[in-house]
Amino acid sequence: MTRTPHAAPGIRFDIERDRRIGLPEAVFSEGKSEEALLALFTRFANPDEKPILFTRVALERFAALPEDLRAAYDYDPLSRTAWAKTCPKHATGCAAVVSAGTADAFVTREAARTLEYLGYEVRLFEDCGVAGLWRIQAAIAEINACDVVIVAAGLDAALASVLGGLTDRPLFAVPTSVGYGIAEGGRTALSSMLASCAPGVAVMNIDNGYGAACAAARVLRLLNAS
Amino acid sequence: MTRTPHAAPGIRFDIERDRRIGLPEAVFSEGKSEEALLALFTRFANPDEKPILFTRVALERFAALPEDLRAAYDYDPLSRTAWAKTCPKHATGCAAVVSAGTADAFVTREAARTLEYLGYEVRLFEDCGVAGLWRIQAAIAEINACDVVIVAAGLDAALASVLGGLTDRPLFAVPTSVGYGIAEGGRTALSSMLASCAPGVAVMNIDNGYGAACAAARVLRLLNAS
Amino acid sequence: MTRTPHAAPGIRFDIERDRRIGLPEAVFSEGKSEEALLALFTRFANPDEKPILFTRVALERFAALPEDLRAAYDYDPLSRTAWAKTCPKHATGCAAVVSAGTADAFVTREAARTLEYLGYEVRLFEDCGVAGLWRIQAAIAEINACDVVIVAAGLDAALASVLGGLTDRPLFAVPTSVGYGIAEGGRTALSSMLASCAPGVAVMNIDNGYGAACAAARVLRLLNAS
Amino acid sequence: MTRTPHAAPGIRFDIERDRRIGLPEAVFSEGKSEEALLALFTRFANPDEKPILFTRVALERFAALPEDLRAAYDYDPLSRTAWAKTCPKHATGCAAVVSAGTADAFVTREAARTLEYLGYEVRLFEDCGVAGLWRIQAAIAEINACDVVIVAAGLDAALASVLGGLTDRPLFAVPTSVGYGIAEGGRTALSSMLASCAPGVAVMNIDNGYGAACAAARVLRLLNAS
Amino acid sequence: MTRTPHAAPGIRFDIERDRRIGLPEAVFSEGKSEEALLALFTRFANPDEKPILFTRVALERFAALPEDLRAAYDYDPLSRTAWAKTCPKHATGCAAVVSAGTADAFVTREAARTLEYLGYEVRLFEDCGVAGLWRIQAAIAEINACDVVIVAAGLDAALASVLGGLTDRPLFAVPTSVGYGIAEGGRTALSSMLASCAPGVAVMNIDNGYGAACAAARVLRLLNAS
Amino acid sequence: MTRTPHAAPGIRFDIERDRRIGLPEAVFSEGKSEEALLALFTRFANPDEKPILFTRVALERFAALPEDLRAAYDYDPLSRTAWAKTCPKHATGCAAVVSAGTADAFVTREAARTLEYLGYEVRLFEDCGVAGLWRIQAAIAEINACDVVIVAAGLDAALASVLGGLTDRPLFAVPTSVGYGIAEGGRTALSSMLASCAPGVAVMNIDNGYGAACAAARVLRLLNAS
Amino acid sequence: MTRTPHAAPGIRFDIERDRRIGLPEAVFSEGKSEEALLALFTRFANPDEKPILFTRVALERFAALPEDLRAAYDYDPLSRTAWAKTCPKHATGCAAVVSAGTADAFVTREAARTLEYLGYEVRLFEDCGVAGLWRIQAAIAEINACDVVIVAAGLDAALASVLGGLTDRPLFAVPTSVGYGIAEGGRTALSSMLASCAPGVAVMNIDNGYGAACAAARVLRLLNAS
Amino acid sequence: MTRTPHAAPGIRFDIERDRRIGLPEAVFSEGKSEEALLALFTRFANPDEKPILFTRVALERFAALPEDLRAAYDYDPLSRTAWAKTCPKHATGCAAVVSAGTADAFVTREAARTLEYLGYEVRLFEDCGVAGLWRIQAAIAEINACDVVIVAAGLDAALASVLGGLTDRPLFAVPTSVGYGIAEGGRTALSSMLASCAPGVAVMNIDNGYGAACAAARVLRLLNAS
């Protein structure tokens, strides 16, 4: 006899989060069961529900949803994010999202899409790795025209320090799991960013584009409030 | 010529374990061969055998058993536990099982099901992570009405310290492998729980819901004896 | 000009801790300044103050206190603990504190002294390492006559598993930093205890005899309450 | 024959740093020779020089300077910082610096003193560890009245997540090397903060109070500019 | 155009190894291409070739060989070893192979089969983990009747120390990758065995049953020579 | 609705790299999308494009390309490298590529193919592991007839030190991920090579045959220039 | 008041160890108090006591003993070993102790002195590191004339593999903490020895010359018995 | 009785090293006894001896030598190197030694002094860290006028990648132990350099300026030969 468990895990939505910390709760999809994910996608397809962001939705999992449900969502397979509607646009605030290589795109796009969902303007600057230093130098003026900067890099993550010495903006660095050997999994990039020789570089968990966007949004929100 | 090995690995059941340490031996199913698992499930489906708990029985492995054997067992796919019958109920003793998020459910349910099998009362308090502090505060009075507390959490496992400062009950903390990047595999949660700033938080191996239940049962047994 | 800092760090004593979790706050002396330590020793030498436990008080630091202050305290250099008075004795509850070797004594004594301070009976069983298995076998009956068991061991910490298979009592294992090479600092003992093949062994941070005593006291308190 | 080396290491001051990134270069004193440190203290005691911040100046090293030089500096032994004069005060911008325990003061004070040197207002909230949850709850309203928040914690660093769920301000978390056993050196606190269950918590290197202040200053500078 | 590489990797068989170190070269099959494995199995099926041992031959890989080739080999799927013929039997020398649990059988059997191939007598003692101490105590007299002892254990590997205190025989300990959480992959068992509190326990790489057999054979060979 | 992302990740080719550092940019294929890879293979099949090297092209990925595109490339599945045309041959310069075992071939071949692509002569010396010391001794005279030496080894990588003591040539050591247990993933080989007791052994990332070839090419280029 | 602790740690000498495992108990001096060490040295200076070996006796600690006690002992500062009398000489059995460099001498001498104390013949072969391969080649014939071999090496420990391919004797490898950077503390040497490409190399804990001697003695004892 | 050990450790100088690998043996002074160091300094002060380099000679240890011996040596306390005479100058070959900060000087100077001892020209470029990118850009033309480049950096070691993208010279990167927190000891710099996004950057052990000089000398020697 295959029993169902005592009950489905009891989700306690943190509905007041937005009011407390200025960021609505999001749904982290990895590790959720098929049933739970279906229920959540169904619930938030309802136009009466407030906007919600789904993160880490693998393409196979999104593709397994009923077609009408999929149609209700704006889904991006590279960033693995989905939403039925976004938060209202803010009056001001622009974030630059910079990457060292195209392989970091799954992280840079998660950050960019999260900021878009939260109602902020985003500009992407990809493939600016320091092995060809002219790339970041060509982009720096445009980057400095934004209010906050997110930088994603794997391998040795040297871009974070170089960028930290070229911008006066709040700078959030996201190590990516891109690399092999000693760099595999992103620990080298993480340590490198934490040990940055440029002052005031703040660091997020590996591949945490969502978190970097939230950190940037905390700053942008302050700008809107001030 | 494909030989069978010298002989099947010689299992030496520790039949006296219950008498020595108050906990019957259990069958850890991972790493056991199909043949060994089938033999064990067949043996303990016999009503004349004493109760036994199977842990870490993946759904695919349970589903591969003959239908009549499956019918003889109470199997829960989330906790991956199975039994044909439980131990006798104890006169007293209630355990609270608390989790930070629904993704920890495979551990909290293993702990809960093990305690149920051992004959103790269990109450579940799930999704109490501290990012929304009101959740644990709403549950704390009910938790403190139990005799012992198990807390399961992944990521930074901050719930263990918060709970350790809110309850006077014996508290067993189980780090879970829930998380990514630096948290992947549960080492961060494990270290965090061991370094808890609350006094007297005792820690189990990563994902070891079964062990936490056994530790709790050692306490509850003492209550029944006293 | 050598300035004093803005102000002495603002200590916020958690005076209600005892009421909340059944354990009074203790003073962890490492990392405290000379001035702070002197102030605290002076304050709690006052007979009108409630009892407080000082932990990790190195002999040099205690010896540096004024003689009359030293006279007011019961100080033990091996466990590095001090108190001016203890908590009231409890009606019931006895803890066994077991160690693998005499080099673990700084931890076993910290556990034993903490329990003595908290008002519980303690029995010491030292130098019971499994390389001479007869030692733990000679002591096991007396150990099992206690209500809870604390085991401290360094190196490979094999004693925790052996003891876990010989007692039905709640068992709190403290890895010690005793050892060299791969065992240096206690990580090997910690991992070994967490991976114990005996069920229900709960583990504390390395050298945390104080914490093990608190975990044991959470159980003993329950016995007194029941 | 004891030779002097080829030449003293050739310092290339990054004099334009302030213009590029809004933060003047600072002098990290650890690892600098006695001669180099003396030369730098002498140079920046000159009233014609621009303000400079010396960090990680151990008390013994400051005490070894000539008395007239010491008199020219505002030196704080707890934070190990020194300056001859500060940067001009900014029109707006206040930072909250929160700590889990008084042992974290060497980090919180480094952050606070750096912000003071940079011309920003600072408020200190110390000893707010979550084992006594009322402490952070008592302080949260005042914390949220500041523009940015820095949180310093060692051990399991659970305060970062709890605070992350209680404030909408940009939040920079500094793990401290406070703790022993598994927590020794600050790796556990670092991992815990990176894995925070609260969104948008950005993390600095272990004990890097200076860096957290710079990250906060990048935000405050933006507020002054907007 | 898919090119073949410059040439197949140039194997240089160490044909004189047996003469130099008393152990013939063996074929480690993991990481070898299908073609290379087929060629080697074909070559050593030839009765004119000297005996060779294949290790780490996964069942799928053996099953993929032509039927007549499979028929020429004695293959054991649990130990993943194969041979067409064994080395001559030695006049004397018996090895005990002891394990903590049945999950270690893939290692104990690799050790036992290697010794059988090398011409030595082997006795198996499985499932002797110390959580039920009577198991090793029941077997110890028979174990001590052998000349050398191999012990395989995962998790906390406490059996190595207990056995090291009960036998005067040369003792080779093999940590196994059996376990989860902190024990996953065998590092905990490895460290534990290296830190054994029993004197003279020598340790092999994780899961290296073959190496333990070779180490034992170096001793047994000496006995035959003396 | 499954959206395409904002845009394909914006590749910024570092076309001037060759002029700056003497090495043309290469395409690291892992982590690139199917579309990106197809586009790049199509572009560089054009005879008007300059030569480009594709690395880490798994056989499945190459096989998935259209047949006419595959026909335009020289692809080697063992080294996972592909090119449509090579760089011009250099007048002088020969590299020896030495390996410890045939399992290292995926790395040695990547190094050899990269050097061939860059226009240098290469000689392969495989299966020279030190367990049979005669193998490297038989090859050493021929190795020393080359200008630079690359050595690839997994496990304990002892060959790097032995070779470092037998050649006066620039020596680049590549640890490989070959091995199991403590050697799994190549960290042991990496550490061993970095700690080599032979002077002047320079080390690359794990499995980085491409990088070793580039390091050797930097030397060979100098020889052609001098 | 400075109290003496409850009692001196209760030493339980494992007096039957010799009978059980063929090796008498030894006194590991590190971490023992001055009082305990003095008591033990006094006791075993008595000619009626059986022989005992003191290990890890730092020169300062030995020098602090009373002069008449020092006169009763054979103390060697390099190996940090002391004894008042040795065990009886055995009829047969010779061990070779080989090292890579002179910096390993504190380990090789501990092994050699332990074997001398146990009554076995020892031959030393020092400074045989493989960067100058002729050194081990010059010594190998004499090494192979012994019954068992101990090899001590730090850094990359390549000597263990080279020696493992040149001798048919039981081979016990001791990693030493000699080295800096990645080799500091001996982990690299330890991993390298465990991953040795030569079959049957058994490994001891870092710097454990005493353990290697015990492992060798287990073999030599067997030779005397056979 | 304090015995001298069996004999002083038997040094076997590798006198033929220069002939085999083009680099004379050097004396690594750390871990050598006072007596051994005195003997070696005495021997090589003899004008008839060939030149020898002493590395890692701490100032205290050099200062403890007799004055006349000190007078015979060229000693540099920053690099901790000493020689009585240098090798003959080479006809050609110049090395650039670049550092990120002045705190790296103990490593850059060890590299520079070793090259000077070996008879090569050296140019120093210190304090070129990328937080102020103009520093490396100002120096790059002069760096590229040398034949080989050594780069030393601690913290995140981002300079290695930036430099790797700006020079076509053989490039040897030395991570330094400069930094704190996650960067302490140099592991972060080491990993970062190994994972460099610039092709062909070869890496040495942490703080191994001597090794980098040897690697560079292997290249420069080739230039002199060609």
From TrEMBL, chains A, B, C, D, E, F, G, H:
InterPro entries for this protein: P2CMN_synthase_LarB, PurE_dom
**Gene Ontology terms for molecular function:** hydrolase activity
List the signal peptide residues. none
Query: Out of the domains of life, which is the source?
Result: Bacteria
Matching Gene3D superfamilies, A to Z? 3.40.50.1970
Question: What GO biological process terms are annotated to this protein in UniProt?
Answer: 'de novo' IMP biosynthetic process
Q: Which residues form the PurE domain?
A: 93-225
Protein's name according to its UniProt entry: 1-(5-phosphoribosyl)-5-amino-4-imidazole-carboxyl ate carboxylase
